[in-house]
């Protein structure tokens, strides 16, 4: 299964042991292929730096490096202009270019 996750899921997985962490654990266990793009990989650093400045930069860097190494990074996602939220439209673009599974 090919899946796109909102950046908030990976951020929440880093900070808590809740449902978001379980979703990421399933990805790490090989239960699905995570799709992302370089532009999305910049978001965790920005979000965590702004909202949690006390969080060690090394921990944030490990998350981004893990995503870059283990996820499938799609080239040039083209937001389709379907969502009024540009961030959500980017996710739709990643899903389209990466051929995410939709059920």
Automatic annotation (TrEMBL):
InterPro entries, A to Z: PIN-like_dom_sf, PIN_dom, PIN_toxin-like
Domain annotation PIN: ranges: 2-102
Protein name, UniProt field: PIN domain-containing protein
Species, as recorded: Thermus thermophilus
Entry-linked Pfam families: PIN_3
């Amino acid at each position: 299964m090919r899946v796109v996750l909102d950046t908030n899921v990976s951020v929440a997985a880093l900070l808590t042991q809740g449902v978001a962490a379980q979703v990421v654990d399933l990805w790490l266990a090989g239960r699905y292929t995570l799709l992302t793009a370089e532009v999305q990989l910049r978001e965790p650093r920005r979000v965590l730096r702004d909202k949690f400045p006390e969080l060690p930069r090394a921990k944030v860097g490990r998350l981004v490096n893990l995503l870059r190494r283990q996820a499938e990074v799609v080239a040039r996602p083209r937001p389709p202009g379907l969502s009024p939220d540009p961030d959500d439209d980017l996710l739709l673009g990643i899903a389209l270019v990466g051929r995410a599974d939709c059920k």
